[in-house]
């Protein structure tokens, strides 16, 4: 079954009236409600639709369900708005979207704590920095260019510098969360001192974007350190385990797809890993079965909550579309 046929099947699902695909359960999508407090991934399906001419109209229609809502003020605003509102604005040139996007960039920027030097993942008054916020910063980098605001890029750069300081270890592994008062926190990883692979992938993507925006080599070097660590901790198929300290545990192909996105900007030392990862995701993990609704199998959403393990994840499908030429 082709990718377009899978999308067409999703669009016939009555659950689209209440939410959007998040992760599969035995191959069937679970739809996250539009007003869910953990909203970070709600934009990826709309972003996926907007990549296809034949699905753009329905993608824009679904976006109206997100436009109606004001989402909680936290570090995940970048994920939501960069994956859906930004491509919709670029497609339509809508002034309404332009103003909403700027307002949300201002909201996200307001979280920046001058004293700490970063956007706390635990909200205003918190003191914890998370590796995944680095990828959410892509929204602020874009907003800085679009609106000519130095403030957005300054906050993004200072947060990236703090991520270097608090989250990147010498060997290239990463913490998921670090509290300045409590130290490392487990988050979604195996332990507080392990390396959650999707977090490392988000970190690599975030440092790469910081380098592309600033041309500061320390960000490129940080990205390469993460890539070298990851490359040395995968087996021959190149697909990361959900946590690099649990090599016999479930894989996370969504982390693999994000890493592959980053690897597309590098050659040389990383070529063999890029090729093996691309081959494995394309041949072994792209779902061909009619009864499997997702595109990329073998993801691991949340190991501790036992959610989305060996399943499809909407952000994995989103990145897979870019890197696997589906």
Q: Would you summarize the structure shown here?
A:
With 326 residues, this protein is mainly α. It has helices at residues 3-11, 44-49, 56-67, 77-92, 95-110, 133-136, 138-147, 150-167, 197-214, 217-231, 253-263, 271-285, 314-323; strands at 19-25, 28-33, 128-130, 177-179, 183-185, 299-302, 307-311. The strands form three sheets. A three-stranded antiparallel beta sheet has the order 3-4-5, covered by helices on one side.
Could you explain the architecture of this structure?
The chain is mainly alpha-helical and 326 residues long. It folds into two domains: 1-33 and 234-254 and 268-326, no CATH class; 111-233, no CATH class. The chain has 13 helices and seven strands. The strands form three sheets. The protein has a three-stranded antiparallel beta sheet, covered by helices on one side. The longest helix is centred in the middle third of the chain and has 18 residues, at 150-167. The protein is globular. The mean pLDDT is 97.
Topology:
Blueprint lengths: L2 H9 L7 E7 L2 E6 L10 H6 L6 H12 L9 H16 L2 H16 L17 E3 L2 H4 L1 H10 L2 H18 L9 E3 L3 E3 L11 H18 L2 H15 L21 H11 L7 H15 L13 E4 L4 E5 L2 H10 L3
Antiparallel strand pairs: 1-2, 3-4, 4-5, 6-7
Helix pairs in contact: 4-5, 4-7, 5-7, 7-8, 8-9, 9-10, 9-11, 11-12, 11-13
What key phrases describe this protein's structure?
globular; 326 residues; mainly alpha
